[in-house]
Design brief:
The complex is a heterodimer. By secondary structure, chain A is α+β, with helices and mostly antiparallel strands. Chain A contains 13 helices and 12 strands. Classes of the chains: A alpha+beta, B alpha/beta.
Chain lengths: 407, 274
């Protein structure tokens, strides 16, 4: 009585009741398919979050000025003039953990071309900004240090703005755009970045030298840096964050108990937290699916119990002809295992199919986790053994005389 | 009735030896003595009919002789091995190798071909597939069903089904064939055919023990043991009446039109032979 033989007997018994076998497997099929699909969706979403944060730039910190406090009403971060250009210089030069830092001053302004106009966020930046965000030029050469030094009136357009002002296929480099009635020469179109995780269009933006921004757009008080500082860490973002915070607290003469009059955002941490959130959701969904596997197992047990009762006389005959209890045990156990395992495999196929479809629908990469797949199949086999054991034991413990007499 | 008990002298080559076999069932507060001390010997090559009315204990006796059940007390030797002390697994091995069962309701596996049904004992004996096929086909040939190996029980008449069952009992070359009311579900004509087959096996040297409540059937045996109230009441030898079927057995094979036996017996559902 070799295992192959037992498997053949089990397969024959299952094929005799095709419909019933299929319905019994359904619980496992749905459970496994759900696990695979859910995890794939979770992984896809996570990958998308990671990709959008990578688009922001790697190892990035954003330093924002503190809040105004006018008569008790706090204006929120970024409204108070607490960062100075000297602060920026200090961050750039004094910290070993910082690779580069760039100011970003922005205001929503209308851009006008010969034919169209478009309101967008106009950013005063330095060439460093593009390297910080690893943002290449699609067309043209972009901003140079020379432009910043002499405050030339040049502009780099985001892909969205370029197509809104000049049409999708045209090359706007060398054309003129008016910003607040001042003509600017287009020196580049930035490469497409896509969307942030919150759906914000990275490409709906225009860049001009920060010095030009101060003179032509900002006006007013220029001693303070009324925008953000993008800081790129050499490698350890947390270290850089700590260094920047200490430096600024020192420069702003804050006492030990004083709150920061600025804020530092660590984008890597935010990305991690978001990805973690998605992962928690994935885990939750996967555990719901695991419950369905368990229910599937109970279904198997139920049908196996019915099957044992139905086949009591067959069991009696087999025993009379020399089947030992372990032969009967393995026969029914293998049947349960086969049901569960086949259900698991069909479930994997269905789950992968569903995940593929959903990935296409949501436009994110399909990620099938091999370990999860193996665990799902393994778990369904485990369910088959666990829930098959009781009916199989019941069958093997039948008294041959009683079993032969069973009607 | 001590006078009626003519227990044969203890033959040295006894196939079955029962000594003070008792079987007691507890039903609620009362004890039921299905067998109240049976001592019995059956030699190699005998053809014995065990008779008795329902409740006499003959079924219990057959279950113990067939190693399906163990006695409450007493000792039982089959071919020299003491059965009464064997484990469940050892009993299964004895049933597999030493005993061939023939049941009243055939007990063939449904939706399983005659050949596969006959192969079943060899499956549990661990015989290779090729050898199983060969021996099963041979056994079916012997009972005159060599041309029906791939028929399922529902495609066979009652008599043919019982002959498949006899082939299944024969296939592991047992020392003992135990037939429990083998003609109980058959009409008189097919009954005679089945009895002729059993007589043939007996003449070929196999020990046949037949359990029946019909005196007509017991006539075909060479020794009749009557059981009543859990005891052997009568043990006599007789000249067996030859079973002569209306048509010779091999010819009966071609009676494709033969209607199935009137009381259509149930066969156990599902499950495959091999």
């Amino acid at each position: 009585m070799n295992p192959l033989m037992t498997l053949r007997i089990a397969l024959r018994a299952l094929l005799r009741n095709r419909m019933r076998s299929f319905l019994t497997m359904l619980g496992i099929i749905i459970g496994v398919a759900a696990v695979i699909a859910m995890v794939a969706i979770g992984e896809g979403a996570k990958a998308q979050v990671e990709a959008s944060f990578a688009a922001m730039g790697t190892n990035l910190l954003i330093v924002m000025p503190g809040a105004t406090n006018a008569g008790g009403a706090s204006g929120g971060f970024g409204t108070g003039p607490t960062l100075t250009w000297d602060d920026l210089k200090a961050i750039q030069t004094e910290l070993a953990s910082v690779r580069a830092a760039a100011p970003v001053l922005r205001r929503s302004t209308q851009l006008v071309s010969d034919e169209q106009n478009w309101s967008t966020s106009v950013n005063g930046v330095t060439p460093d900004y593009f390297s910080l965000r690893s943002w290449a030029m699609e067309k043209g050469n972009g901003l140079t240090q020379q432009d910043v030094d002499s405050a030339t009136k040049v502009v780099v357009l985001g892909a969205t703005v370029a197509s809104k002002l000049f049409g999708a296929s045209s090359d706007p480099v060398g054309m003129n755009v008016r910003i607040g009635n001042v003509p600017f020469l287009v020196v580049g179109v930035a490469a497409k970045k896509g969307q942030s995780s919150t759906g914000q269009d990275f490409d709906d933006v225009a860049f001009i030298p920060v010095t030009t921004y101060q003179r032509k757009i900002q006006g007013g008080l220029q001693k303070y840096l009324s925008g953000q500082i993008y800081v790129q860490a050499v490698s350890d973002v947390t270290k850089a964050e700590k260094d920047v915070r200490e430096l600024l607290r020192d420069r702003h003469h804050l006492a030990v108990n004083d709150d920061d009059d600025f804020s530092v955002r660590n984008l890597t941490e935010i990305a991690g937290a978001q990805a973690e959130g998605k992962q928690t959701l994935t885990l939750l969904l996967a555990s719901v699916a695991a419950v369905s596997l368990l229910v599937g197992g109970i279904g198997i047990m139920n049908i196996m119990l019915v099957s044992v009762t139905e086949r009591t006389r067959e069991i009696g005959v087999r025993m009379a002809l020399g089947a030992k209890p372990r032969h009967i045990l393995s026969q029914f156990l293998v049947e349960a295992l086969t049901l569960a395992l086949f259900g698991g495999l069909i479930g994997v196929a269905l789950g992968v199919g569903a995940a593929g479809r959903l990935a296409i629908q949501f436009g994110w990469p399909m990620k099938i986790r091999t370990d999860v797949t193996l665990i799902a199949v393994g778990f369904s086999a485990f369910v088959g053994v666990v829930f098959g054991l009781y009916p199989a034991r019941k069958a093997s413990k039948l008294d041959p005389i009683q079993a032969l007499r069973f009607e | 009735m001590a006078a009626a008990r003519q227990a044969p002298a203890a033959a040295p080559d006894a196939l079955i030896k029962l000594e003070a076999i008792r079987k007691t069932y507890v039903m609620g507060d009362t004890e039921v003595h299905a067998l109240a001390g049976v001592t019995l010997e059956i030699a190699h090559g005998e053809f014995v009919a065990i008779m008795g009315s329902s409740g006499s204990g003959k079924s219990t006796l057959m279950n113990i002789v067939g190693c399906l059940d163990r006695p409450t007390s007493g000792r039982y030797w089959l071919a020299g091995d003491e059965i009464s002390r064997m484990s469940v697994n050892e009993l299964a091995e004895i049933r597999n190798s030493q005993i061939g069962f023939v049941f009243q309701n055939f007990n063939l596996l449904a939706r399983t071909t005659a050949l596969e049904n006959v192969e079943l004992p060899l499956v549990y004996a661990g015989v290779s597939a090729k050898e199983r096929h060969r021996r099963a086909a041979q056994a079916l040939e012997k009972v005159g069903l060599g041309t029906r190996t791939d028929h399922t029980p529902s495609q066979l008449s009652g008599g043919q089904q019982q002959r498949v069952a006899i082939a299944r009992a024969l296939v592991s070359a047992p020392k003992l064939i135990l037939a429990d009311e083998p003609t109980g579900a058959l009409d008189s004509k097919t009954s005679v055919e089945v009895m002729a087959l059993l007589q043939e096996l007996w003449k070929a040297g196999i020990t046949v023990v037949l359990v029946t409540h019909e005196p007509d059937v017991a006539e075909f045996a060479a020794r009749v043991i009557v059981v009543r109230d859990g005891l052997v009441k009568e043990d006599r030898r007789q000249t067996p009446k030859p079973a002569i079927p209306a048509a010779p057995v091999p010819a009966a094979v071609d009676e494709a039109a033969a209607p199935p036996a009137p009381p259509k017996p149930e066969t156990p559902e599902a499950g495959g032979a091999a």
